């Protein structure tokens, strides 16, 4: 069975720091018949390399905003207080995964930080992108779809989930400049915000702005093939 690494997070709860991640990710990996392996935050590259040696593919998970200094901007008032340990961990984990050429699926923050790793930037709030009338921070339950995305026909994502989808949306930031070697493969239908990208090089990288793990974990089978990308 293939082993899928899931980048971990850390949080203070009841007076103790916990290594944790939402269980949608492991639920999805279990559903596709692979083995989920949660990877705790470390600041040691050699530890990240051992993690990568144990896995066949990697999910970079969602979470708080990336520190804007990583793309040479100062934080605006909308940006969350950064979590430096996690930013550092995510960077060394991405670097180690790229060295071993394993497939990487970035979801939400995971998608955003991979973009920043490759020299891209983010709009620190969607209002800096421009006017939009749709809900990128949805008010309904987070596994329910809330807006359409248009998927480019010549993309890997198209081969996985087709040309148009209804997706959920829980992000207040979005891609500004794409990083080197990344091409947009889906945009929000009404306002054209980049909702997915992939690598145009030899690395297997798929970045998704919405949360397919919440949708698939709750029974939406349209999103299953996004996870099959990790094991094919
Ligand atoms: Mn969205």
Keywords:
two-stranded antiparallel ribbon, Rossmann fold, single chain, globular, alpha/beta, binds manganese (II) ion
What is the arithmetic mean of pLDDT?
97
CATH superfamily: Class I glutamine amidotransferase (GATase) domain
Order of helices and strands: EEEHEHEHEHEHEHEEEEEHH
| Bound chemical compounds | manganese (II) ion
Count of strand segments: 13
User: Under CATH, the topology is which?
Assistant: Rossmann fold
Rough shape? Answer: globular
Spatial strand arrangement across the major sheet = 4-1-5-6-13-12-11-8-9
Question: If you compute it from the alpha carbons, what radius of gyration comes out, rounded to the nearest whole angstrom?
Answer: 16 Å
Number of domains: 1
Largest sheet: 9 strands, mixed
Description of the structure:
There is one protein chain. The chain has 232 residues and is of the alpha/beta class. The chain has a single domain, classed as Class I glutamine amidotransferase (GATase) domain (Rossmann fold). Helix content is 28%, strand content 25%. It contains eight helices and 13 strands. Strands 4-1-5-6-13-12-11-8-9 form a nine-stranded mixed beta sheet, sandwiched between helices. A two-stranded antiparallel ribbon has the order 2-3. Strands 7-10 form a two-stranded antiparallel sheet. Helix 3 crosses helix 4. The radius of gyration is 16 Å and the shape is globular.
Strands, helices and their partners?
Layout: E1 3-7, E2 9-13, E3 16-20, H1 24-31, E4 35-39, H2 45-54, E5 57-60, H3 84-100, E6 104-107, H4 109-117, E7 122-123, H5 126-129, E8 147-151, H6 156-161, E9 164-167, E10 174-175, E11 182-188, E12 194-199, E13 205-208, H7 212-217, H8 224-228
Parallel strand pairs: 1-4, 1-5, 5-6, 6-13
Antiparallel strand pairs: 2-3, 7-10, 8-9, 8-11, 11-12, 12-13
The structure holds manganese (II) ion.
Residues 136, 147, 169, 171, 188, 195, 209-210 line the site of manganese (II) ion (MN).
